Amino acid sequence: MQGIIAEIVAKYNYWIYVVLMMIGFYAMIGKRNLVKKLIGLNIFQTAIILFYVSTGVKRGGGIPIVDKHAALTHGIDPATVVNPLPHVLMLTAIVVGVSVTGVALAVLLRVYREYGTLEEDEILEKIGK
Amino acid sequence: MKQVQERARTRAVGESLIIQTAVRLMVPFIQLFGLYVIVHGHYSPGGGFQGGVILGASFILTAVAFDLQTSLKRFSERTNAIMGNAGVLLYTGVGLLCALLGGLFLDYSALVRIIPMDPVEWRSLGIFLVEVGVGLAVMSIMASLYWDLSSRGELDEGL
Amino acid sequence: MAYVHSIWPLAAVLLPLLATVPIMLSGRSPNLRESWTLLAGGGMFAIVASMLPTVLAGGGFVLTLAEVVPGVPIQLRVDALGMFFALVASFLWIFTSVYSIGYMRALEEHDQTRYFASFAVAIAATIGVAFSANLLTLYLFYEVLSLSTYPLVTHEQNAEARASGRKYLTYILGTSIGLVLPAMLIVYQLTGTLDFTHGGILAGKASPATLSLLLLLFVLGFAKAGVMPFHGWLPAAMVAPTPVSAFLHGVAVVKVGVFSILRVVFDIFGPDLLRSLDLGVALTYFVSITILFASLVALTQDNLKRRLAYSTIGQLSYMILGAGMVSAAGMTGGVLHIAMHAFGKITLFFCAGAIYVASHKKYISEMDGLGRKMPITYAAFFLGALSIIGMPPLGGFLSKWNLLVGAVQSHQMVLVAVLLGSSLLNAAYFFPIIYRGFFAPAPAGEAREGIREAPLFCLLPLSVTALCSLLLFFYPTVFLQLVQRALFP
Amino acid sequence: MTTSNLHIYILAAPLLGAFAVNLLGRLSRRWVAPLTLGVLGYATIAALVVLARVLRDGTISYTVGNWRPPFGIELVIDPLGALMLLLISAVALTATFSSLTSIERELPGREHLFFTMYLLLIAGLTGLALTGDAFNLYVLLEITSITTYGLIAMGRGRAPLASFNYIIMGSIGACFYLLGVGYLYLLTGTLNMADIARILQGLQETAALATAFAFILVGLWIKMAFFPLHSWLPTAYTQAPSGASVMIAPLMTKVTVFLMIRVIFSIFTPTYAFFHHPGVQAGIVWAAALAIVCASALALAQRDLKRMLTYIIVAEVGYMVGGVWLANTQGMTGAILHIVNDALMTLCLFLAAAAIIYRTGSLGFDSLQGLYRRMPITMAAFTVGAFSMIGIPPTAGFFSKWYLLLGGIEASQWGYVAALVFSSLVNAVLFFRIIEIAYFRTGEAGHGHGHAVVRVEEAPLMMLAPLVLAALALIAVGFGSGPLVNGVIRLAIPGGF
Lengths: 129, 159, 489, 497
Fold this sequence. Notes:
Number of domains of chain A: 1
Mean pLDDT of chain A: 85
Radius of gyration of chain A: 21 Å
Largest interface: C-D, 39 and 39 residues
Largest sheet of chain A: none
Low-confidence stretches of chain A: none
Order of helices and strands of chain B: HHHHHH
CATH architecture of chain A: Orthogonal Bundle
Shape of chain A: elongated
Strand content of chain A: under 5%
Shape of chain B: elongated
Oligomer: heterotetramer
Structural class of chain A: mainly alpha
Distance between the termini of chain B: 29 Å
Number of strands of chain A: 0
């Protein structure tokens, strides 16, 4: 028991993402409203984005913006700045996420126009007719 | 003053004079800031994405504060789409130009063949052009996302 | 054997295949269309016959089309066994075509263009099977044959024909994909080749259990041979027009099945391997069941074509029986029976068709006294039946005699009993038809004035094939030589 | 390292073309067709040249912007990638002729928007075939997916709903992949595939690697609709506009299977993927067998041609996944050959479906009656495609099935072999059911002796020509499968297993 708690506390950030992911996952599967599903998807994506960003963190690391001349003359001590690569990657992932959300919302508009509702049960009922 | 009061009375619910005036004042500064972020993006924090989003936000702000038609009057759907496409074309075009001029794709130093400059200078300028392209594309996409989603794709009244 | 690289084997296959194009294009002018069919038939036979002297002299032809799988090209090769089969098939096709023209026109059938086109593809595939140099090529043409005969079986387009077509495909495609394909792959996996080699390629490559399984897969998988329990398609396919039945059961489809099994037994397993593992005996016992059972069922059938179908099922297993004996005379008899049965059975089917054209009768019980109205047809029928039963002086006697000798040679008295018993059964189901035709009084109160012999286009082929059955007893030399070349080069 | 830019043009051509179509298409719709066809024609020719070059000189590595890998973005064109490149551009080019015609009718006035997305999708697929970077792969995967969502949603009726389900499932798949790549990045600190593979050599025991592998695999399986993760596919592909499905159906799942092969070969190495966790390999082959059987059985239950085809696609994904995971050369050859063949078969069948829908407006089995008389050429080509699906020689489908079965026998995976045979038989039932309806049921009462006069109403030439071409390609690839396997596919499989 002690070991498990220690494990959880030591890597608390990962556990937070796991919890976030599961919330998103639950929303995608459990919710019957299509917009809520979409929000679940966003939470899911955000969890992964946070996961990535946190991998760049270093204890005591600063912002990875350095003065050009200082960097050229002294070089950079990697320990003093956080790893910027995951952040940059996640910028792209965020853009992807926005695009997906945009397309999904547009699609939902069409669904709404088609069925007059965004509740999955009601839509299925209408299809069944 | 009377005119202003008159307009305030005939305004639809939710439209407030204070907000509209504030937005009208803010939008130029927001856009200027957006341009700043784009232009300085290639060697300091910022860039095409961020600047584009800020520019796009300025149009969205107009649309929120006034209505969709007003913002479309400033910046029509057609212009927006053309600018978006042109942005991507600029980005890929610069990359392709590098390739056509004998370098690798996006290898801006190859652009020396057009205007003889220091290759390092060209690298800086090339990425700047790319950032401008990205900024244009992102701006137009942000704007049209809002327009289309808020009006169910019909671009009439908006939220 | 020295094989010469030559384009002729391909020409024999391509000629009827290419003939489908002008046949389809000249659908509006039946005479032109039929002349294309006959032209292709004659041309193909000429090509096949032109290769005969070389094969008899111990030579052969080969043509590689494309190497599709490492070590296994699509390759055509003319050897003695293939020549034997191709000769029979291409010769009989000419008569089938002539007969088809008479039959289809007399009955004013629909979709004749489709019919003749499918027919041409079918014969091309049959010749392809005969000239295949390896199992993959054989499989290819085997499948093409299955598919090209499907429209022929379903020709009537009514519910019964569609159901039969479905049954036909289920049996034929189901077994070839489900059994032959895995068996072929296992052989390839074991040996790295699929080439037909005299003496077999499997010796020493696998355990007896695997080999037995493979043999079973092949024998059952080539369901066109009608070995029980996969024989059900054959009676069902009888809904097709009679020339199709004649062609399917006399020449192409069923013989392709048997030929494929013989190929596999001779050139993939090899007689020696079968003998050493006693698989041959197992095979003979297995097909004996089919021989006896099919003959018994044939006795109970009243529909003439169905009776012939069951007779075919029994006779086909004779050929496999011969191969399974792995004695010289037995194998000779088995292979020879392909030709003898082909001539006999095609005659019988032609006669059945001629009777239908003339009188629109399908059932034996209705045919009392018909022989007096159609003496030529019934005489031919008599000859064909005698040949199938195995009476001298008809071709069937030669093959059955060889089979009997083979059975005695291999000391399998059970097989001798099976052969004799089956011949008796054959007689028992054929003679009543002939007796009824000639001697039974015509049923009273039935107008029979209009019934006379079928048109010349129908009559001519059946007379010729019946006479051929007779002649084959006296002049079997070519076929015997080919069999000798094939089995004991 | 190379300085030739030809391969980047293959990627850039559809990308630039997409926006050019959007811009110029606004001015006049007449620009759409020549631009799209020109761009894709160019890509096809260039892909041919690149393939020849790769076969002659070996794998090409290309760095974007002249930034050295592993820091820059690297494009790796190995024989397999070059083959995919050719496949993608050729299939897309062929499909475009048909979709130009059908979109003109289905989405009048919106052609330029449709073809913008269409070309973007092709650019994304091309990029997938080229990229040598694990994260870029994610981005490109999402580019293809997002455009596909859009294209599918342009259909009628239930299309938007189907598209939304696809969005949810597809995004979960992509997120899983991204998560897997995240673990790899944690382990290695790099995203370049070759670099990851190099660093991973010493890290094979870690649980994190196994987790990464599992996430990436599951993510890709969702994207390729590997049963039972397939639920999004049938409705989405059925409801898509026929102009979109002729391109999406042949390419999307196949390219994802290619990605799975790419990930196994370039990142994890076959030794790790297949043999490090005992039981996993066999388990996945069994799962593939199950997928084949279940999807085939589901296909039997369908009463709509296009919907039936989509279930066959799901079954074919099982073929390929199983073939890859047989973990022997024959199986891998079969899987890669089947990627090519299946793309062509699906193309042929969907083109036929598009042509039929263009003329009859429906694909329900009842509306297929007598179609052989009305559209003889279409149905002839359809028949060729059907035979290939069943696996009848000499059509292409037979030969890939041959290698797959051979691989199954070699690995003694009898369940998989049985599933393949079963699926072939089911396909035979499926297609002959249609052939019977279309050929022998004329729709009139009785069976009609004599010539019922039915007017021949073939699809327009723009739809017919690619269809016939695809059917001929099936036969040509069948006869040419020997050289194809020996000359290209064998080169694409690294040794060592």
